[in-house]
Every structure is written in C-alpha cells, then in structure tokens.
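stage 2 :: seqdesign
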C-alpha cells in the first residue's frame, strides 16, 4: 500500500459569482454545513501581501464541511469580472468527486430530483464504484462517488488501488523506460 506524505485535502478552493446560490446549494441540497464565512482582508487581493488569492479586494470566502476533516471553499468573484472556465482545458478542473455512503448517495439523488437538478447516474465507474454526476450553480461538474459494498466505512484507497501488473500495463503505453516505470510503481503491491 502507498505511504503518501500528505494526509488528504484540507480545502478545495473554487470560485463563484453568486455566493448566496452557492451557499444554498451546498448547505440545503448537498448537505455540507457552512462552517466559516468571511471577507478576505484588504491587501490580500491586489496588494503586496497577495499569497495567491484571486486579484480582488474584500471578496467573500466561505468554507463548507466536506466531512472527514476536509473543507470545500468558495471565493466570490465579482459578477462578470472573469470568463467561465472550460472544465476540459489544460490546468482546469474537470470535476470534483465526493465520497459518500450508499445511504447518502441515494439521499442526494433524491434531493437533486426534488429540486429539479439534472444529473447522470447512478453510473458504474470502477469495479465496486458508482457515480452520480451533476453541475452546481456555478457550472462546476460534481460527482458523488459511492462504494456500496463498503457500507458506512468507505475505503477509497482499497477500492481504487491497482496491482503493480495492471498499472504497469498502462504505464508501458506511456513510455518504454522500465526504470521510470519501476520507480513510479515502487509503492504498489504485486
């Protein structure tokens, strides 16, 4: 099994033009409680102390509880100040997948139905994994990822970790450098 130096996601920071609609969607439909609501202090958007924040002053920055000690965050960009993102562009975010239990998976599906939100799924993904895809009010593609056999304790790594042989077959379509492949697969079991 792998031994990552990181412990998971602290927060995933996305953008919105409508914090009210975004807050309602994530709290009422997805069931992620709002845990922190603030405005970014002056000087962190365009000033010399900007540490990577969007280049706007005094914008809202809200945090929602994703579960398992992780946060989903949104910066509110002024309306019309930025173009809509292309989720398939290089450097873009294609979608974000949240792990849920089977019970929560169907609860969220029901909430999407009740609120007239279009979705795709349940869709089989990998062996033992199903997904439900939809867009949030900002046009960000979301997925609810469920491993029904895991019950109330989803084990994402076990469900998704391949054997060295299976991963090697794919990496060999990328390069024939066996030393590189061996290095990339050093943490996988046989």
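stage 2 :: out
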């Amino acid at each position: 099994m792998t031994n990552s130096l990181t412990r998971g996601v602290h927060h995933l920071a996305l953008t919105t033009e409508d914090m009210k609609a975004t807050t309602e969607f994530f709290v009422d439909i997805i069931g992620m409680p709002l845990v922190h609501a603030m405005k970014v202090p002056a000087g962190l958007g365009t000033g010399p102390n900007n540490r990577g924040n969007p280049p706007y002053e005094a914008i809202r920055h809200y945090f929602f509880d994703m579960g398992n000690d992780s946060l989903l965050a949104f910066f509110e960009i002024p309306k019309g100040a930025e173009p809509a993102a292309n989720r398939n562009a290089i450097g873009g975010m294609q979608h974000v997948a949240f792990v849920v239990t089977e019970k929560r998976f169907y609860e969220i599906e029901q909430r999407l139905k009740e609120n007239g939100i279009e979705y795709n799924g349940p869709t089989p993904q990998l062996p033992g994994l199903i997904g439900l895809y939809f867009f949030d009010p900002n046009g960000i593609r979301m997925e609810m990822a469920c491993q029904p056999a895991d019950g109330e304790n989803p084990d994402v790594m076990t469900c998704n970790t391949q054997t060295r042989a299976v991963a090697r077959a794919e990496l060999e379509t990328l390069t024939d450098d066996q030393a590189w492949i061996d290095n990339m697969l050093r943490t996988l079991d046989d």
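stage 3 :: structure notes
- The chain has three domains: 9-82, 91-154, 162-190.
- The first strand starts at residue 11 and ends at 16.
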